[in-house]
Amino acid sequence: MSYSRADGRQPDQLRPIAFEAGIAPNATGSVLVSFGQTRVICGATIEARVPGWMRAQNVSGGWLTAEYSMLPYSTHDRKQRDSSKGKVDGRSVEIQRLIGRSLRAVIDLQKLGQHTLWVDCDVLQADGGTRTASITGAYIAARLAVQTLMDSGKLAENPIKDSIAAVSVGIVDGASLLDLPYTEDRDAAVDANIVMTGQGQFVEVQGSGEEATFSPAQLQELLGLATKGLKEIAGLQAAFLTQQLLGS
């Protein structure tokens, strides 16, 4: 079905994606990731210790955990900080768990050794797809952090087995679209977030109808759009990391 996107993109076209390394110098690895007007700071910090529950249960290897937040000025109307509310809101908890699951799917925690890899994703500007941008940038930040430890001799080998990225898809006015900005996400009858490895394996498929249903054929079309986009994103990640690691 024909649908005219406000930004002029084709239905299967990603927003412009960019990465800027070193945005948070005190992190072990960091990147500013942009999906169009959505911008997220992703920082990875590696600590030489594991959580208490791992020590108590004598669990070997390391651990990875993620935190996610939207800065107050990331949206048009100021978003109240979780700290001022006294608790993390349910959406943030859901997203940071998703980020953690996604990265753990491609990391050999045994090879991480007695380290905890903290991934912090802070949304600087939100225009749809903040969770997918966070996962995509978090992988790069983690890879840069791991390289720092390898270069310093604190890690013997790279524990990251594959790349990971995520993208949104949805159905708006009957048209299946890739990488939705806020206005499309707001109006979507169906929306989904897809997480996939660089080798093309799905890690998570989150999809729902917004007071609507969708057919098996539409689901397959959305998965096809996501797969196309995620292969492109994996290529962008690889090119960026090659440039960063060869230049280091």
Description:
It is a single chain. This protein is α+β, with helices and mostly antiparallel strands and 248 residues long. It has one domain (17-247): GHMP Kinase, N-terminal domain (Ribosomal Protein S5, domain 2). The protein has six helices and nine strands, in the order βββαβααβαββαββα. It has helices at residues 52-56, 82-85, 90-104, 130-151, 182-187, 216-247, and strands at residues 17-21, 29-35, 38-47, 63-70, 116-125, 164-172, 175-178, 190-197, 202-209. The strands form two sheets. The protein has a five-stranded mixed sheet. It has a four-stranded antiparallel sheet with strand order 7-6-8-9, with helices on both faces. A hairpin with a 2-residue loop joins strand 6 (164-172) and strand 7. The longest helix is centred in the C-terminal third of the chain and has 32 residues, at 216-247.
Helix fraction, binned, reads 25-40%
- The domain count comes to 1
Instruction: Output the structural class.
Output: alpha+beta
Estimate the global geometry from the Cα principal axes. Answer: globular
Q: Please identify, by name, the CATH architecture.
A: 2-Layer Sandwich
Largest sheet: spatial strand order: 1-2-3-5-4
The CATH class: Alpha Beta
- The string of secondary-structure elements, in order, is EEEHEHHEHEEHEEH
Helix tally equals 6
Unreliable residue runs: none
Mean residue pLDDT: 93
Our estimate of the beta-strand percent is 25-35%
CATH topology: Ribosomal Protein S5, domain 2
The termini sit apart by 47 Å
Number of strands: 9
What is the name of the CATH superfamily? GHMP Kinase, N-terminal domain
The profile of the biggest β sheet is:
5 strands, mixed
Overall radius of gyration? 18 Å
